[in-house]
UniProtKB/TrEMBL annotation:
<dbReference type="InterPro" id="IPR013118">
    <property type="entry name" value="Mannitol_DH_C"/>
</dbReference>
<dbReference type="Pfam" id="PF08125">
    <property type="entry name" value="Mannitol_dh_C"/>
</dbReference>
<dbReference type="InterPro" id="IPR013328">
    <property type="entry name" value="6PGD_dom2"/>
</dbReference>
<dbReference type="InterPro" id="IPR013131">
    <property type="entry name" value="Mannitol_DH_N"/>
</dbReference>
<dbReference type="InterPro" id="IPR036291">
    <property type="entry name" value="NAD(P)-bd_dom_sf"/>
</dbReference>
<feature type="domain" description="Mannitol dehydrogenase C-terminal">
    <location>
        <begin position="295"/>
        <end position="484"/>
    </location>
</feature>
<protein>
    <submittedName>
        <fullName>Mannitol 2-dehydrogenase</fullName>
    </submittedName>
</protein>
<dbReference type="Pfam" id="PF01232">
    <property type="entry name" value="Mannitol_dh"/>
</dbReference>
<dbReference type="InterPro" id="IPR050988">
    <property type="entry name" value="Mannitol_DH/Oxidoreductase"/>
</dbReference>
<dbReference type="InterPro" id="IPR008927">
    <property type="entry name" value="6-PGluconate_DH-like_C_sf"/>
</dbReference>
<dbReference type="InterPro" id="IPR000669">
    <property type="entry name" value="Mannitol_DH"/>
</dbReference>
<dbReference type="GO" id="GO:0016616">
    <property type="term" value="F:oxidoreductase activity, acting on the CH-OH group of donors, NAD or NADP as acceptor"/>
</dbReference>
<keyword id="KW-0560">Oxidoreductase</keyword>
<feature type="domain" description="Mannitol dehydrogenase N-terminal">
    <location>
        <begin position="38"/>
        <end position="286"/>
    </location>
</feature>
Length: 503
């Protein structure tokens, strides 16, 4: 007999059905009617729900932070589908924790509304101007900050930024919307809110300040000065592996007894480190494990270089070899040996310890997390937007290594694998579907670089500024030629045999 035939019908997730959930599915102990909003979050996706929203939920479960409920917001048309799904289930989310030994589910409810997705972002601006809102947080991806590449400066020539400067009351971007809301708050005699970036960028708070103040300065210099002097943009580091939602996850949620159309899975690890600089108050986040510190830089450098950089070491060659997930890359002896060797030889030497751990201990933790077979985090997801991720996650280690005169052979190979992946075809002949906002240009250049590798490095927007004939560019050219001629596995074996110290 089919075991599913005896399974109970899963409970449709809504506020009025929480009491009907299976006993082993935890759910809010607080009442929605007791919550009032204090946070607007822009770019509300899986990561926010599994990470920042979970921390607020934990506080609410303790009877705290009931005036810090979350209002979701988006600025892109594709956010409308998520809004529709979440509103249909009263903005509740089922979090499924994936561990190799067990699976557990928890329903969280700190989010109380999701603003309409509309031209001009009128509802978003109005809500951020509300005096009850004291924090506006963002997860808009590393590539969503309109930066001049390899700098923290706003690209004032971008068409969206120019549009917002010319139309400050009906902006297109999150940053233009923030400027417009802060303008209303100033006119109403209110303090600014704290703007909190939760994206994987070194100095993300400083970058967010540059974007908001820089954009304001283009249309209203006095407003820009007021924001800069009175606002707060704390740096932060966020960490939790959160795969994309799949049909299989929805089915797994059903098996656990919950009919959730937008569940989220995550690993059994979270970390949030925030610079304690808030201009309008904050929840007592330290009571649920958040680290409040003035030294965010060391934490974020360790995480971005070892974990996020490590993701790129695995995902690009994994795509070329059609290895489907990060955990399966960690089970592949050739890829794992490459990952460990580059980390130990070329990344860890340039990472500072933090109070709780050394760089080597953090790498060991990352290896355990990446090897979690219950997490089906695809190489495709992790390889997405390499044009933003390589400059942010691998080039800082590369620049430090070059400055200190140490080896860059492995990092050159990592960049060669990215170039080879962007050619758009795996070594088994299958297609790599477009996976970057700049994919067309990347693919064209990657194919041309097969015969002239230097063309790839001339893309200074994402590859840095490396002249031909340097140590790095020569190593890159050599590796790329060998990858095309001999295949990735042979090149992995050559690199590890030549450079590994048997770690």
């Amino acid at each position: 007999m089919d075991p599913a035939a005896n399974a109970k019908t899963p409970v449709r997730l809504r506020l009025d059905s929480l009491a009907d959930l299976p006993a082993n599915v935890r759910h809010p102990a607080y009442q929605r009617s007791d919550l009032t909003p204090g946070i607007v979050h822009i770019g509300l996706g899986n990561f926010h729900r599994a990470h920042q929203a979970w921390y607020i939920h934990q506080l609410m479960q303790q009877g705290q932070a009931h005036d810090w409920a979350i209002i979701g917001a988006g600025i892109r048309n594709y956010d409308a589908e998520m809004r529709e799904r979440l509103l249909a289930q009263d903005c509740l989310t089922t979090l499924i924790e994936l561990d190799p030994t067990r699976t557990s589910a928890e329903v969280i409810g700190p989010m109380v509304d999701y603003l309409p997705i509309e031209a001009g972002n009128v509802a978003l601006i109005r809500k951020m101007a509300d005096p009850a809102v004291r924090i506006v947080s963002l997860t808009v991806t590393e590539g969503g900050y309109y930066l001049i590449s390899n700098t923290g400066a706003l690209n004032t020539d971008h068409q969206d930024i120019r549009y917002d400067a010319a139309n400050p009351n009906l902006p297109r971007t999150a940053f233009g919307s923030i400027v417009a809301a802060l303008k209303q708050r100033r006119a109403n005699g209110l303090k600014p809110f704290t703007a909190l970036s939760c994206d994987n960028l070194q100095g993300n708070g400083t970058i967010l300040r540059n974007c908001v103040v820089g954009l304001a300065r283009m249309s209203d210099p006095d407003l820009a000065t007021w924001i800069d002097q009175n606002g707060a943009f704390p740096n932060s580091m966020v960490d939790c592996i959160v795969p994309a939602t799949t049909d299989e996850l929805v089915s797994q949620c059903h098996i656990l007894g919950v009919d959730d159309r937008a569940p989220v899975s995550h690993e059994n690890f979270r970390q949030w480190v925030i610079e304690d600089e808030f201009c309008a108050g904050r929840p007592p986040l330290e009571q649920v494990g958040v680290t409040l510190t003035q030294n965010v830089h060391s934490y974020e450098s360790m995480k971005l270089r070892i974990l996020n950089g490590g993701h790129q070491l695995l995902a690009n060659v994994g795509e070329i070899l059609n290895v489907p997930t990060i955990s399966s890359c960690m089970q592949d002896p050739d890829i794992l040996a490459f990952f460990r060797t580059v980390q130990i030889e070329e990344i860890l030497p340039h990472v500072e310890a933090v109070p709780e751990t050394t760089a080597k201990e953090y790498l060991e933790l990352v290896e355990r997390r990446f090897a979690n077979t219950a997490i089906h985090d695809t190489t495709r997801r992790v390889a997405f937007d390499g044009s933003a991720r390589h400059p942010g996650f691998l080039l800082p280690s590369l620049r430090d290594a070059l400055a200190s005169g140490s080896s860059v052979i492995g990092l050159a190979l990592a960049e060669a694998f990215w170039c080879r992946m962007c050619a758009g075809v795996r070594e088994d002949g299958s297609e790599i579907a477009p996976n970057d906002p700049l994919w067309e240009n990347l693919c064209e250049t990657a194919l041309a670089a097969r015969t002239d590798p230097g063309l790839w490095l001339e893309q200074s927007l994402y590859s840095g500024d490396f002249d031909r004939g340097t140590q790095f560019s020569n190593a890159f050219a050599s590796w790329l030629t060998k990858i095309w001629q001999r295949g990735s596995r042979a090149v992995l074996a050559e690199y590890v045999a030549t450079n590994s110290l048997s770690h």
